[in-house]
């Protein structure tokens, strides 16, 4: 006799959390939910997805939308306050943000360096 481990049936909440953490958008999640729970109301399911996304953002398990935009600025300032040179900062930023042109990164670093020397931020 062979023993087989059976996975427990997932609840709606578990299914939505897993989909959100895997980066699935609302339409994809709604398609999965409509297959698994065809009798449920569309608006209630959509509201449930929004509530779970909000909870995950509060728990810091899901990044906010503007996280990537702010991080480039914060990283540049952080590296400057550590005392790194412009070339070191450029290498780090190119690795972190490969889609941004090197020229634009250099320009932003020089601009921040000038403000840093003026004492506008520490």
- Taken as a percent bin, the fraction of beta residues is under 5%
Structural class by secondary-structure content: mainly alpha
Average pLDDT reading: 81
Could you give the distance between the termini? Answer: 69 Å
How many β-strand runs?
A: 0
Sum this structure up briefly.
Helices cover 67% and strands 0% of the residues. It is built from 6 helices and no strands.
Note down, in words, how this protein is organized.
Helix 1 (12-21) crosses helix 3. This protein has 122 residues and is mainly α. The mean pLDDT is 81. It has helices at residues 12-21, 26-36, 42-58, 67-82, 86-96, 102-118. The protein has two domains: 12-58, no CATH class; 67-118. 67% of the residues lie in helices and 0% in strands.
Key structural traits:
single chain, 122 residues, mainly alpha, 6 helices, 67% helix, 0% strand
Write the layout of secondary structure elements.
Blueprint lengths: L11 H10 L4 H11 L5 H17 L8 H16 L3 H11 L5 H17 L4
């Amino acid at each position: 006799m062979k023993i087989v481990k059976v996975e427990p049936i997932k609840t709606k909440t578990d299914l939505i959390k897993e989909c959100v953490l895997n980066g699935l958008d609302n339409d994809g999640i709604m398609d999965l939910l409509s297959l698994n729970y065809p009798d449920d109301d569309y608006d209630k399911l959509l509201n449930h997805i929004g509530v779970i996304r909000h909870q995950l953002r509060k728990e810091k398990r899901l990044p906010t939308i503007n996280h990537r935009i702010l991080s480039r600025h914060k990283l540049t300032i952080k590296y400057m306050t550590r005392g790194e040179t412009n070339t070191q900062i450029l290498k780090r930023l190119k690795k972190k943000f490969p889609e941004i042109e090197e020229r634009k990164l250099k320009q932003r670093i020089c601009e921040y360096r000038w403000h840093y020397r003026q004492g506008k931020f520490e």
